[in-house]
Design brief:
Chain A: Pathway: Amino-acid biosynthesis; L-leucine biosynthesis; L-leucine from 3-methyl-2-oxobutanoate: step 2/4. The complex is a heterodimer. Chain A has 3 domains: about 160 residues, Aconitase, domain 3; about 90 residues, Aconitase, Domain 2 (3-Layer(aba) Sandwich); about 180 residues, 2-Layer Sandwich (Aconitase, domain 3), CATH 3.30.499.10. In chain A, strands 5-4-3-6-7 form a 5-stranded parallel beta sheet, with helices on both faces. Chain A has a 5-stranded parallel beta sheet with strand order 17-16-15-18-19. A 4-stranded parallel beta sheet of chain A has the order 11-10-9-12. Helix content of chain A is about 30%, strand content about 15%. The relative contact order of chain B is 0.16. The chains are: A alpha/beta, B alpha/beta. At the A-B interface, strand 2, helix 2, helix 3, helix 5 and strand 8 of A face helix 4, helix 7 and helix 8 of B.
Chain lengths: ~475, ~210
C-alpha cells in the first residue's frame, strides 16, 4: 500500500469526482457562516430560486460586527446592525441554525466550531473567512473561501478544487519555558515568509506540536493562512479524541467510538512523501514580536528593528522603508523599547481559555502601566467567558486594570467600535499587522497572550521570561 | 457571470509586494450586503487622504497625489500590474468586487494569494502569473510618459504589448472555459446532482457521524 500523507487521506475521502486535468469536485461536510461574507451568497440563492443542499451541515454565528460592550441596547452602528439582522433573517428563511448575539454560545466563528463539536476530525470544513485554517488542528481539511464559494457550498455541498502540494513543517524537540504556540507559528512565518506556503497545504508535526494542547494547535493552524497556505493540518491523537468527547454536536455513545476509531487513522503514514519538508528546532524559538506591516516582519524579543540596508533586494528594501515609516519606527531600536498605547487580547488566534489563563498569570497582582490607554480582553465565546469567570480570571484582569468584554472579533479587524486611532500602537494577540487592519493609521505588533499582558503591565515590550 | 471578452487596456503599475485584501478594500466597506458599488472605495486608505466610510460621496474627497490610480494616465486602467503575493490576507470577495467595479479585468503579478486567486475567476477577473523578470520588464515600461497598453487574448493565452512583443501565459483549462463562456459554477455543478447524491449515500454508510 502506498504511504499517504494526512492531506492525501482527507482529499481522497472527499473527492466526489475528478477531471482529467485534475480539477475535482470536493464534498464539504461542514460550513460555518458569519454575517460579513454570507449576505450576498444567500441573495444569490434567493435570486436563483435555490435552497441549501443540507441545512444541518451549516452553523451560523455573528462575530465580526458585534459590540463587545453591553449588548442589551443592540448594535448602535446602523450599517452593522442591518448586516447582523440579515444573517438572522437568512438563517430563519433557509432553516440554518444560528447562535445569535443573545445566545451564550455565541462567539468567534473559529472558536465556536470546535467548542460545539461542529468541527469533526476527518471532515472538510469551509467558511467565508481565511482563518478557517484553524480547524485543521483536528485533522480536518479546513480552508477559507470567498462569497461565491459560500453560495456554491450552500447550494451543492461541494466545491470545485484542485489538490495543493504538501508541506511538512516539523517542529522538533521541546519548547523553552514561556514560549508558546503563537511564537512557533510566528517564527515559522518569519522563516518561510507570507508566501512561503502558497500552493501548499501545510502539516505541522514534530514533538513540539504533539506537546501542544488543542488550543495551542488551533493557534498554529489558524496562522497557516498567514504563511500563504491553503490549509494547516495536525494529525489526530488522543488529545484530539478527548477534546471531542461530550461536545454537543459531536457523535455520542457507540457512534463516538466508531468515529474515534476512524479518527485515529488520520495521521500521515510512515514514509509518506511530502513535496517540501522544513525542520525547526523548538529549543531555538524565542518569544516573537512583529515590527512591521506583514506577519513575516517578525523577530525574537531580543531583536532590533531592522534597516532597509539589511534587505537582500530593492523590493524588500522598499517594503522595509514603507513599513518603518508606517510603524513610526527607527532602524536599530531594540524591540523592548517599543511602547504600545493599547493592548488587545482576543481574536480567533488567541482568545481561548488557555490563552486567557496565560495572560491572567502575568496580569495577576500587577497593574496596567500608566502609558497604556486601553488594555482589553475579549473572550472567544460566551462559553470561554463563562469558564474564565468561573476560574476568577475576569477578576484578575479587572483588578489589574484590563477591560473584560463580550465575545467577538473585536479589534482584530476593527469592524465594530473597538479600534486604534491613527498613529496608535497596539500589542495584539491577533493574526494580522497589515496597514490599517486595527483601524486606519493604527500600528499593530503581533505577540502571544503572555507577551501582550507583559507589555500591558510594564508599558513596553518585554521578554515575558524575565518578569 | 459576464463572459470574458478580449480587450486592449492601459496598465496601472502598483509597485509594492504583499498587497493584502484589507488594503484593497478596508473593513468598514464590508458591512454592505450588496455585491456592487465598491469601486469608489478601492484602495481607500491609499487613494484618499481622509477616512472613508460606506456610502460616502468620493467625488470631493482629498486624494493622495502619490497613489498610482490618482495619476490621470492610469485613471481608466483595466490591467493592474502588481508584485508578489498579491491579494494576501482576508478571504473577502469584496476585493475582486472592488477591483472589477473600478474597471480592472486583468491583474499581472509574479504570484497571488490562493483565496484571492480563486475569488477572481468567480467574478470575471483574470489573474495572470508571470515570472519575476517579465514583471520587472513590464514595470519598467509601465512607468513611462505614455502609459503601457496591452491587448489581452484569453483564447490564445497571449498578451500583446503596444510595441508588438507577445507574452504567453498559463491558465487552468476549466477556469478559462468558465470565463470565456461566462458560466455559472453552481449551475454546472448541479448538473451532477446524481453523482453528488451517490457519494453522499456511500459516505452515510462509511462515516455516519458526519451526517448527524
Amino acid at each position: 500500500m502506498v504511504a499517504k500523507t494526512l492531506y492525501d487521506k482527507l482529499w481522497d475521502e472527499h473527492v466526489v469526482r475528478v477531471d482529467d486535468n485534475g480539477t475535482a469536485l470536493l464534498y464539504i461536510d461542514r460550513q460555518l457562516i458569519h454575517e460579513v461574507t454570507s449576505p450576498q451568497a444567500f441573495e444569490g440563492l434567493r435570486l436563483a430560486g435555490r435552497k441549501p443542499w443540507r441545512t444541518s451541515a451549516n452553523l451560523a454565528v455573528p462575530d465580526h460586527n458585534v459590540p463587545t460592550t453591553d449588548r442589551t441596547a443592540g448594535i448602535a452602528d446602523p450599517v452593522a446592525r442591518v448586516q447582523v439582522e440579515a444573517l438572522g433573517t437568512n438563517c430563519l428563511t433557509f432553516g440554518i441554525t444560528e447562535l445569535n448575539m443573545g445566545d451564550k454560545r455565541q462567539g468567534v466563528v473559529h472558536v465556536i466550531g470546535p467548542e460545539q463539536g461542529f468541527t469533526l476530525p476527518g471532515s472538510t470544513v469551509v467558511c467565508g473567512d481565511s482563518h478557517t485554517a484553524t480547524h485543521g488542528a483536528f485533522g480536518a481539511l479546513a480552508f477559507g473561501i470567498g462569497t461565491s464559494e459560500v453560495e456554491h457550498a450552500l447550494a451543492t455541498q461541494t466545491l470545485i478544487q484542485r489538490k495543493s502540494k504538501s508541506m511538512l513543517i516539523s517542529v522538533d524537540g521541546k519548547l523553552g519555558a514561556g514560549v508558546t504556540a503563537k511564537d512557533i507559528v510566528l517564527a515559522i512565518i518569519g522563516k518561510i515568509g507570507t508566501a512561503g506556503g502558497t500552493g501548499y497545504v501545510i502539516e505541522f508535526g514534530g514533538e513540539a506540536i504533539r506537546d501542544l494542547s488543542m488550543e495551542g494547535r488551533m493557534t498554529v493552524c489558524n496562522m497557516a493562512i498567514e504563511a500563504g497556505a491553503r490549509a494547516g493540518l495536525i494529525g489526530v491523537d488522543e488529545k484530539t479524541v478527548d477534546y471531542m468527547r461530550g461536545r454537543p454536536l459531536a457523535p455520542a455513545g457507540e457512534l463516538f467510538e466508531r468515529a474515534a476509531a476512524h479518527w485515529r487513522t488520520l495521521v500521515s503514514d510512515a514514509g509518506a512523501q511530502f513535496d517540501t519538508v522544513i525542520h525547526l528546532d523548538a529549543a531555538e524559538v524565542q518569544p516573537q514580536i512583529t515590527w512591521g506591516t506583514s506577519p513575516e516582519m517578525v523577530l525574537p524579543v531580543d531583536g532590533k528593528v531592522p534597516s532597509p540596508e539589511d534587505a537582500g533586494d530593492e523590493v524588500k528594501a522598499s517594503g522595509i522603508r514603507r513599513a518603518l515609516d508606517y510603524m513610526g519606527l527607527t532602524a536599530g531600536t531594540p524591540l523592548t523599547e517599543i511602547r504600545p498605547d493599547k493592548v488587545f487580547i482576543g481574536s480567533c488566534t488567541n482568545s481561548r481559555i488557555e490563552d486567557l489563563r496565560a495572560a491572567a498569570e502575568i496580569a495577576k497582582g500587577r497593574k496596567v502601566a500608566e502609558g497604556i490607554k486601553l488594555a482589553m480582553v475579549v473572550p472567544g465565546s460566551g462559553l470561554v467567558k463563562e469558564q474564565a469567570e468561573a476560574e476568577g480570571l475576569d477578576k484578575i484582569f479587572t483588578e489589574a486594570g484590563f477591560e473584560w468584554r463580550e465575545p467577538g472579533c473585536s479589534m482584530c479587524l476593527a469592524m465594530n467600535a473597538d479600534r486604534l486611532e491613527p498613529g496608535e500602537r497596539c500589542a495584539s494577540t491577533s493574526n494580522r499587522n497589515f496597514e490599517g487592519r486595527q483601524g486606519q493609521g493604527g500600528r499593530t505588533h503581533l505577540v502571544s497572550p503572555a507577551m501582550a499582558a507583559a507589555a500591558a503591565v510594564t508599558g513596553h515590550f518585554v521578554d515575558v521570561r524575565e518578569l | 457571470m459576464e463572459a470574458f471578452k478580449n480587450f486592449t487596456g492601459v496598465v496601472a503599475p502598483l509597485d509594492r509586494a504583499n498587497v493584502d485584501t484589507d488594503a484593497i478594500i478596508p473593513k468598514q466597506f464590508l458591512k454592505s450586503i450588496k455585491r456592487t458599488g465598491f469601486g469608489p472605495y478601492l484602495f481607500d486608505e491609499w487613494r484618499y487622504l481622509d477616512h472613508g466610510e460606506p456610502d460616502m460621496d468620493c467625488s470631493g474627497r482629498p486624494r493622495n497625489p502619490e497613489f498610482v490610480l490618482n495619476d490621470p494616465r492610469f485613471a481608466q486602467a483595466q490591467i493592474l500590474l502588481a508584485r508578489e503575493n498579491f491579494g494576501c490576507g482576508s478571504s473577502r470577495e469584496h476585493a475582486p468586487w472592488a477591483l472589477t467595479d473600478f474597471g480592472f479585468r486583468v491583474i499581472l503579478a509574479p504570484s497571488f494569494a490562493d483565496i484571492f486567486f480563486n475569488n477572481s475567476f468567480k467574478n470575471g477577473l483574470l489573474p495572470i502569473v508571470l515570472d519575476a523578470k517579465t514583471i520587472d520588464a513590464l514595470f519598467a515600461k509601465a512607468g513611462g510618459e505614455t502609459p503601457l497598453s496591452i491587448s489581452v487574448d484569453l483564447s490564445a493565452q497571449t498578451l500583446t504589448l503596444d510595441d508588438g512583443s507577445v507574452i504567453d501565459f498559463d491558465v487552468d483549462a476549466g477556469s478559462k472555459r468558465r470565463l470565456i463562456e461566462g458560466l455559472d459554477d453552481i449551475g454546472l455543478t448541479l448538473q451532477e446532482v446524481e453523482t453528488i447524491r451517490a457519494y453522499e449515500e456511500r459516505r452515510r454508510q462509511e462515516a455516519p457521524w458526519l451526517f448527524i
